[in-house]
Design a protein that fits this description.
It is a single chain. By secondary structure, the protein is an alpha/beta fold. The protein contains 8 helices and 7 strands. A 7-stranded mixed beta sheet has the order 3-2-1-4-5-7-6, sandwiched between helices. A hairpin with an 8-residue loop joins strand 6 and strand 7. Helix 1 crosses helix 2. About 5% of the residues have low confidence.
């Protein structure tokens, strides 16, 4: 029974697929809305900047970034989530301000020094190899580029200290974490903010 529940939760939220993944996307769009808005505000993309959104899920934060930035690129390993984001961001895609592609934190498909901001909401626990992901994100960020990551504290399998160390070892500076409470059924979130050297 517990194994079946874990499989269903993974199909809905971890690695969304099928009809269960579509339902999970709708739930994520509601539960993560405040976090997505806050992370976009912290990242503060300008009309001249390119934003890479890791795991955009149903596209709520991707749309917010696309409305503010020159371009927002969403990279997600789930075809179901790419389809959800494509629907939500349709007008911005037509306008050339949002782009979607299959990928992950460790393999973004971006050239080096090609984005100004990287944001990630509630998927750091799915990165697989976190140190490799931090290196990839440092690689694709332009000098002075910034990283904003938010993750539910309850799914974080490491300490905030270890996150800071991993980011610093990948070349990030000014790395700091903070705890945020968004209310409702969603528990507190750990937010990591960092830069690559200018």
């Amino acid at each position: 029974m517990a194994n079946n529940l874990m499989k269903a939760l993974d199909a809905a939220f971890g690695h969304p697929r099928g009809k269960v993944g579509e339902l999970g996307g709708r739930v994520m769009a509601v539960l993560n809305a405040k976090v997505e808005e806050h992370v976009t505000d912290v990242a503060a993309p300008t009309p001249e900047e390119v934003v890479l959104v890791l795991g955009p899920g149903p596209g709520v934060g991707l749309k917010l970034a696309g409305e503010r930035a020159l371009k927002a690129i969403g990279v997600d390993p789930s075809q179901v989530m790419l389809d959800e984001a494509r629907t939500r961001c349709a007008e911005l895609i037509v306008a050339g301000r949002v782009e979607l592609r299959e990928g992950a934190a460790t393999r973004t498909g971006q050239p080096g020094d090609s984005v100004d901001v990287v944001v990630s909401v509630n998927n750091l626990q799915l990165w697989g190899n976190r140190p490799a992901a931090f290196h990839e994100l440092a690689r694709v960020l332009r000098p002075g580029g910034r990283l904003v990551v938010s993750v539910h504290r309850r799914v974080l399998d490491t300490s905030e200290y270890d996150l800071i160390r991993e980011a610093e070892e990948a070349g990030f500076t000014e790395v700091r974490t903070s705890l945020h409470q968004y209310g409702g059924v969603v528990g507190p979130a750990v937010q990591l903010v960092a830069r690559v050297p200018a």
